[in-house]
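If you are new to this repository, start here. Below is one unmodified record pulled from the training split, so you can see the exact layout before writing a loader.
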Amino acid sequence: MSLFSKPKLIIWPKAKVVELYIDRKENNTLSFDLNLWQKCNDKDLEALSLYFRQNKFGSISVLVPDDVVFTKSFTYDSKIDNIDKKEVISLAANLVNFPIDPDAIEYKLTQAADKTIIQAFIYDKPKLDQLKSNLNIISVGVNKFTSVSTAISNTISSIYKQEFFLIYPLNDQEYTLLLSKNNSVYLTVNLKGPSLDIQKIINYSNFYFSNITQKIYVPEGRDLEIITTTQMDKTLYSESQIAQSLSKASNLPLPVLGEMTSSVLINADIIVSPNNISSSSTKMENKKRNILPIIAVFIFTAALASVGAWFVLNKNSGEVASPTGTSEETSQPTVAPTATATPKPTIAEIEKDIKIQILNATEINGQAATLKAKLVALGFKNINVGNAKETATENSIQVKSASTSAYFESKLSSDFPATYTEDLKSSSTYDAVFTIGTDLSSMSSSTTSTSDEETTPTVTKTVTKSVTPTVTKAATKSATPTVSE
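And here is the target side for that same chain:
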């Protein structure tokens, strides 16, 4: 930056605070306790407005959080040159948590081997309009709006030219996982740590690329457990190290660096170093390696003890014998200990009028009806069934109370093994939400005889390779879009 040029400013509006980052070495950060995503009056904006009047900036950019802009890619099972915006809306309708406005959609088509990838960016228009309105009040001229994930991708794509995952911390417990290649973001997912199960998301990468993406960047200094069965090439990254290598202040976060240096090529050595690269094994594998020497010592000690015991017993059997050839010890009556049965705890019954939702997260038709029949046999009537927005590979049950969790676990542990969580909010419509991620064909035979309410449909065991449900559109197009959730 030349001596007389105006510094670049990045505005990062968050839920309760507005953060400002200036492209200079010192006094480069400022924050205001203000929510620009809600309507603000002149008094609310007075301090921020005064700051902009007193300081003149050159280029001004706004970072848009990934909960305000929905980033998702879909696949068409043939090559197409264009697609109607209404069709993009229909593909994303069940995945977006806010109303979709046709004027707040951006998308582009990328041709793959035998398919077309539709990369969609859908903005929460009411929120974005409110942000723009507040910025207009303080007379801030914004050059561009960029999503946080896109700004991050701009930086890493200058280092690594292939597809990659990256985990970016939003706070102490929340993270964004993004999939990107060549400055293009294919999907973003918000996660809560410190244990992040990302295997299902990793599988999605196979829809966009020829192979499952194995490269992943993980923030340095975070005690994260990455749960995945795929062998991942994990590389630690340091925001301060990247900033210093770009001749920027070390306190600038990665998305801000992406906006300030979007046209700068970065040397890969600023991230990858012998001390920064973790092996592709997970923490669990490291723990196994650490415990192996202990197990080896234990086995060796046990073997020595066994040999010693055998020697002593054989020696005693030769020395202590009665005239009849029976040892004195064995001539004594042996009293077998009486085993006391451990009483099983009684699981209390729960109200049978609770509201239950069953979501089929597989491609096997009729699974929700199969599980519903089982619950009807237990006396539950208020049951709603449907398809999950995203596919799953495991069964799970979300409930509001520990008693409900204990009841279902006692009744369904053999037929429906699942992971139980008591994280449903008290305001939730349902008291229990069942998500099916496995083949329940073994349950169907047992439930049909117990349910008088309905007939359980035959479960088809043929499962396609793709874990993504296929959405069939109108006959105007012969191609069928595949929604990758």
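Two things worth knowing about this chain: The chain is about 25% helix and 20% strand. The two ends are 43 Å apart (CA to CA).
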